Amino acid sequence: NGGAGATSVTLDDVTAVEAAARTSAAPLSGGEGRAYGNTVLSDASTLPGVASTGDGEVKVKVEGEPSALVGSGVDTDADEIEMKDMAGDDSKPLLDGEGGEGEGGEGAKERGEGEGEGKKTEEGAAEEEEELDDSDLEEDEEWEKGRLQFDNELEDTEEYGSLPFDEYSVLRGTKKGRGPFARPPDQVGKFKGFVRVIDNRPGAVAPPPPPFDLTKMKSANEYVARIYVIDAHHLFPADDNGSADPYLVLKLGRGRKKRVIKDRDNYFKTTLFPEFRAVYDINCKLPGESQLRIEVWDYDKVSADDLIGTTVIDLENYLFSKRWNKWSDTLKPLETRTLHHPSTTTAQGKVRLWVEIIPKRKIASVPIINIKKPPPEPFQMRIVVWSARNMVSMDKVTKMNDLYITGIFEAIPPGSNGTITIKQETDIHWRAKKGKGSFNWRMLYDFELPLKQPRIKFQAFDQDITFSSDQIGEANIPIGRPLKKALRKYKKGVKGVAGIVRYPPNKRSLFQMSAKNVLEKIKNKFRGQTTRNAEWIPIRHPNREGKQGEVQVEIEVMHKTTADMRPVGKGRDPPNQYPELPEPDRVKFNLLRPDLMLKELLGESICRKLKCLLVICVLGGCCFFLFPMIITQVLTSIGK
Known about the structure:
The chain is built from ten helices and 28 strands. With 640 residues, the chain is α+β, with helices and mostly antiparallel strands.
């Protein structure tokens, strides 16, 4: 009609075609008119608006108002609008490492407590969480429990299945120019429909039913699209400082009835990882205008705001999807969608969200789910560095180190670009020999949970007075699970000593411990020494092979209220308790025994060399003083 559009499909050995299609004039023109139709055919030649040729080619016309294209600069009687199969469209870029067949299923994960065979019990999971690992320590929130989460677009996952429609781009015009100057036809809309080939011969298998109730396409119903936007990450920097001030804009429909929500007042300052935590309701009629655009913009005070990226959700595809409708209305899956910019094929970041489509008559009975971030909780981590062993000697002459250990806590606050860093270090064990060091030193770290990617980095150094200290090695320890367990305990109301999380966990009986550990425990008991619940952490260096030594540490994590009830001092300062840290076993200088002092300061090897040198000097001195006397005696004897 008026050259609004056409597509052609070649059919081989076709006995009949069942076609159901919905076309729209609105995407073609920006107007408000829409047309819906369903046609079932017993013979292709009887399809209204379809010209059947002898070679089996069927041409489908997309009907629209001729006046819709007036003013567009094209001849509505001559220009033909072609259709391009959306399934073959590779214009949607992916982040590195994404895409590929079947990745949607692999990227899916279910949060909360699972049921059925193969699920871990809560007790088993708790035991496993006492180990150190690299997980974020953001506790699962109420809205996450039981909700599927996908690392990409929902429609690209195996769990979602195929789209309810076959989709085609509707193009106007023809390709103009050649080479890099060629201009493709303009996309002016989208065609949705499906075509089936049916065997009508006697005894043939009955065709499967349509993918959904086709009567739902004949009239539009009022809905409310409720969009829960959790956060965005790795946004493309829009400002000169390498960051952005992002906010959200939601758009649905076109023309005069286009609905826009611009949340500019709630922009986030200087971050590429905004925690939006926002809920938006948009009225819509479906089938109808269904292209929901979610845009992330950069706020600017002086110049115009910049578009960071856009993602588009087709609400009709969700509404008519069998799999989407099987998911509970209050547990629609959380998807991670890629943001795109029209000027580039490079991904501009990701946004996490989920969508609910609620009949308008029921909206009052569907409460909004609370997705606000719970307030952070103050926690304290206590690390006791007991000792070191098997440390490589950096002083090749004395075979000793002036040893000290640093502990660096690093983590990323939610919604932040940067990393918080808290550094502490022990005192120096001067002239530590045989690779051993003794510290008995407490480090205290105060922070708020939850955090992302928390870890503690232990570094061993040999102090150098005149030059920079020599690094012996380091160990990066992820501590997500201990911190996460401490946060979970506090939220469950477990407070006081019972709420303390220790690493390593002190749950082994004497029968589970090695003979060496049992003997050490018994010796410490008789000596009155503190029993250590510690772990040996290997220290390595990227430029040297093998372990460079080991550091013995123990870790406790507790809420700040518990820490205030059990006060301790840094290092060995008072109050020195929980546990009490004795003075370390180190070099003791005695001015009455200079030989022992030299041995401790210079090492046994140098002391032996010095002793040999001293003997040689004494003998040489004796010879020097006795030689004239001997010569005089000899000459006197000869004179006589």
